[in-house]
Amino acid sequence: MIRKILLGLLAFASPAPLLLAQATPSPALLVLAKQDQTLSIVDPATLKVVARIPAGPDPHEVVASTDGRYAYASNYGFGAYHTISVADLVAQKALDPIDVGVLHSPHGLDYADGKLYFTAEINKIIGRWDPETHQIDWLLGTGQNRTHMVVVSKDLDHIYTSNVVAGTISIFDRTADPEGGTHPGGPGAMPPLPMGAPPPPPPPPGRPTSGWNETVLPSGPGSEGFDVSPDGHEIWAANAGDGTVTIMDPIAKKVVAHLNVDVPGANRLKFTPDGERVFVSSLRTGEVTVIDAASHNVITRIKVGHGAAGILMQPDGARVYVACSPDNNVAVIDLKTLQIVGRIDSGRGPDGMAWAVRP
User: What is the DSSP letter of 78?
Assistant: First the structure.
């Protein structure tokens, strides 16, 4: 009788606790499923899901902290939500979400210098959340409609955003002071003090010690997915409205090329780690278009499913992962052969992906 009861309990038990029995690998592949509202932790060696964690309503993008301990997922909702979900990747559990208050539709995420950067589409803003103080400690307006994705340079001196409805890319460059001065005596610098005058008081705590100059460059209709080349010399932006790709020089602050690569419904764009190729996904065709970064020629188109969304490169350059949202899986592509070598059971509506690496 006891044996029958135990067998019955096993038959009806939820699979989630069984997944939690497996430790989070490092590196771990993180995959959001929008319709299931979950974050999957995937072992990239086996392509198996080891745990699923609640990710809040309509999770779109995900990023991990530098130490690989925490994951953050933006709860988008086309204006309905104002939270960023948080997960403890080691304990494999959801933590209290970050409430960004009056900032609505958080979407793009990046993690730099121990802080979380995010966009708020409705407010046309980039925000920064400090995990030490649990506060938003910095905001920067873009003035561009539907500020969507964000990339922060490693030296923290440059920030880039795509602006979907505006059809633009914003380039922010740090200045030496909030008045625009670049060095003592440069434009915007304070005039010299009279002889014998006391030095000015130090700035109050929390006052910015640098400002930002914004350059807005035209991309194309529905400019959404974009990436900065590994050397920082080019920005490539995919334009969903007309299937083109715009190439920009972030240093010279100008558009240098506009490619008619025929990627209607272009969703995401990523450079390979070596900077030699660019991958563009299409939600409309379910293809991934591979472009040679030097010649700008299309190398091939890979049919991955009925719709292709998020793209994530493996840091060692061996594979690329493509979220096939309508097919409820992630396609794994070998970067040498450009062939699909596996699928990940991601849950319903996969999209944003990230790596979590613990030292």
Answer: G
Reference 65, options 92, 89, 45, 97; nearest CA is 89
Q: Compute the chain's Rg from CA coordinates.
A: 22
How many helices (H) and strands (E) in the chain? 2, 28
Tokens standing for 40? 């999957």
319: nearest Cα among 346, 298, 300, 337 = 337
CA–CA distance, 83 with 105 (Å, rounded to integer): 8
Using DSSP's 3-state secondary structure scheme, residue 299 falls into strand
Give burial (CB, 10 Å; 0-12/13-18/19+) of 45: exposed
Q: Mean pLDDT per 10-residue run, the chain (359 residues)?
A: 40 40 93 98 98 98 98 97 98 98 98 98 98 97 98 97 98 76 38 57 56 97 97 98 98 98 98 98 98 98 98 97 98 98 98 97
Q: Which amino acid is at 217?
A: L
Tokens coding 260? 């008619």
Look up residue 331 and give its amino acid.
Answer: A
What are the backbone angles phi and psi of residue 10, rounded to the nearest 5°?
A: -65, -35
| Neighbouring residues of 227: CB distance < 8 A, sequence distance ≥ 6 | 151, 235, 236, 269, 270, 271, 278
Q: What CA–CA distance (Å, rounded) separates 235 from 153?
A: 12
Q: Is the peptide bond before 202 cis (omega within 30 degrees of 0)?
A: no
